[in-house]
Amino acid sequence: MAVNDSRLDWVLAIAPYRRDAEHLNALFAQNGVEVRRADGLEELAALLEQAPGVLVATQEALNPQVLKAIGRHLVDQPEWSEMPVVILLDRMVPQARVRSELSSVWPRSRQLYYQRPVTALELLSGIQSSLLARLRQRDVRDHIEREIELRRELNHRVKNILSSVSSIFQMTRRRAVSLNEFADDFSGRLAALANVHSAVFQASGEAVEFSRIAELTLSPYRTKGTNRVKFGGSAILLSPEAATTLALCFHELATNALKYGALSKPEGRVSLNWSVSQDEDLTIQWNESGGPPASEPERSGYGTRYIRSALYSLFGTPPSILFRPHGLHCTLTGPLTRVSPKNPKM
Fold first, then answer.
1. Closest to 252 measured CA to CA, from 331, 166, 185
2. Angle, CA 159 vertex, CA 158 and CA 164 arms, to 5°
3. Is 245 helix (H, G, I), strand (E, B) or coil?
């Protein structure tokens, strides 16, 4: 009955008598269980620090110093941990008395007792069950650590969202000339923010495709029967933060095109393209055509200020925003590593 799960822990064995130690070593080795022996108090302390999965000790090994060393380890275990302790007793020793004594020395410990002579099958079965229980404990530990990590990440993202909403509110309020205009602009920006966060959530918070962000952000500006807004480019995964920033920038460009640029005229067109060079630089281009001539305003509005600030912060390089006679042109080139997740999952 070999234990073949490579994720299982190793066994720490304490057996002062040569025959017992050799028997345990042979038994575990033949059945695929890793075993490490402690032949002295210092070696025992060192091996306990390495967090064994199961401790197996013969009754003769449990002198006061060993009991104390094991007791310290059991007390210092993390909350998720409950290392099983397997005790091999002599046939003539009353198990109840030993159990009572060890329970007083090791309170709330997980103890399993076997009366010698014990069959190999019985002992291996008990060790395997203990190792599997230990594996479940480590699964719980990993789950707890993941939950803590997710809570921290959620807290961080909520703070970022609230900060974004506050910034959008303040900057929209400064430029609004009427309550209705403020309400429309603010609602549109919040909708863009909500859309991209939905995409990030659907992607399990790991990464989201560039094309998905473009689709969510620009599809509201596509009218039935026409295809005035086109977009496409390389297959790229974006981090949640980069996806949010780019979505808000695309929303501002599309809103500006609808109010003052290409989308304000029936014949106007908008194209969004992105590509990655051999040097792993990402280039993003927004081009408008067919609309009224673009002229640089005397005073930059919220959208232009946000795009410049957000893209510079994201890529470490400012975008080029040109107001040309045939339409607005915005382009930016920066390292792909600044916007891609550290460990992308396709």
1. 185
2. 95
3. helix
Cα–Cα distance measured from residue 324 to residue 273, given in angstroms and rounded to the nearest whole number: 18
pTM: 0.50
Query: What angle (nearest 5°) sits at the alpha carbon of residue 131, between those of residues 65 and 98?
Result: 40
Question: Which residues are paired to 184 by β-bridges?
Answer: none
- Residues 291-307 pLDDT 10s: 898 888 776 776 788 88
Give CA–CA dist 244/202, Å, rounded. Answer: 14
Give the Cα separation of 284 and 4 in Å (integer): 52
- The Cα–Cα gap between 86 and 33 comes to 15
Q: Which two tokens stand for residue 318?
A: 């400012």
Looking at the chain, how many residues does it have? Answer: 346
Sign of the dihedral through C-alpha 192, 195, 201, 207 = negative
Angle at 86 between CA 82 and CA 91, to 5 degrees: 155
Q: Which of 81, 31, 83, 38 is nearest to 61 (CA)?
A: 38
Give the model confidence (pLDDT) of 85-141 as tens digits.
999 988 888 888 888 888 889 987 889 999 888 888 888 888 989 988 888 988 888
Alpha-carbon span 55 to 83, nearest angstrom: 7
CA separation for the pair 77, 83 (Å, rounded): 8
Task: Indicate the SS3 state at residue 87.
Answer: strand
